[in-house]
C-alpha cells in the first residue's frame, strides 16, 4: 500500500441501467407478431378492411353451400318421407275399408 499525498485514485464507475419488464406490453407485442399486425396506422386500416372483406366473402360462400347441402335439403327430404308415409297409410286404410264394405 503506497502512500501518496497528491494523487488519488478515482472511484470505480458504476453504470447501471435499470431494465423494466412490462408483462402486459410483452403479451400485446407477441399477439401483434402472431397475427401480423403492424404499428403503422394507415396500413392497419387497409389490412382491417381486407380481413373483414375476406371473412364476409367466406361467410357468404359457406352460407350458400349450407343452403344447398345443409339443413334445407335435409328438411325437404324428411318432409317428402313423411308425406309418402301419410299417403301410404291413407291408401292402406282405404283398401281395408273397401274390403270390409265388400264383406258386409
What can be said about this structure in brief?
This protein has 104 residues and is mainly alpha-helical. The protein has helices at residues 23-35, 41-69, 71-103.
Summary keywords:
single chain, 104 residues, mainly alpha, 3 helices, 0% strand
Explained architecture:
The protein is an all-alpha fold and 104 residues long. It has a domain at 78-104. Helices cover 72% and strands 0% of the residues. The chain is built from 3 helices and no strands. Helix 2 runs parallel beside helix 3 (71-103). It is rod-shaped, with a radius of gyration of 41 Å. The chain starts with 22 loop residues before the first helix and ends with a helix.
Work out the number of β strands. 0
Structural class: mainly alpha
Task: Give start-end ranges of low-pLDDT stretches.
Answer: none
Oligomer: single chain
Q: Describe the largest sheet.
A: none
Round the Cα radius of gyration to an integer and report it.
41 Å
Helices, strands, pairings?
Elements: H1 23-35, H2 41-69, H3 71-103
Helix pairs in contact: 2-3
Amino acid at each position: 500500500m503506497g502512500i501518496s499525498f497528491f494523487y488519488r485514485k478515482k472511484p470505480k464507475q458504476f453504470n447501471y441501467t435499470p431494465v423494466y419488464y412490462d408483462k402486459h406490453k410483452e403479451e400485446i407485442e407477441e399477439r401483434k407478431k402472431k397475427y401480423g399486425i403492424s404499428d403503422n396506422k394507415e396500413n392497419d386500416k387497409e389490412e382491417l378492411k381486407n380481413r373483414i372483406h375476406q371473412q364476409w366473402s367466406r361467410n357468404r360462400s359457406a352460407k350458400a353451400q349450407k343452403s344447398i347441402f345443409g339443413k334445407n335439403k335435409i328438411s325437404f327430404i324428411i318432409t317428402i318421407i313423411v308425406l309418402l308415409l301419410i299417403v301410404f297409410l291413407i291408401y292402406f286404410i282405404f283398401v281395408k275399408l273397401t274390403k270390409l264394405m265388400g264383406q258386409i
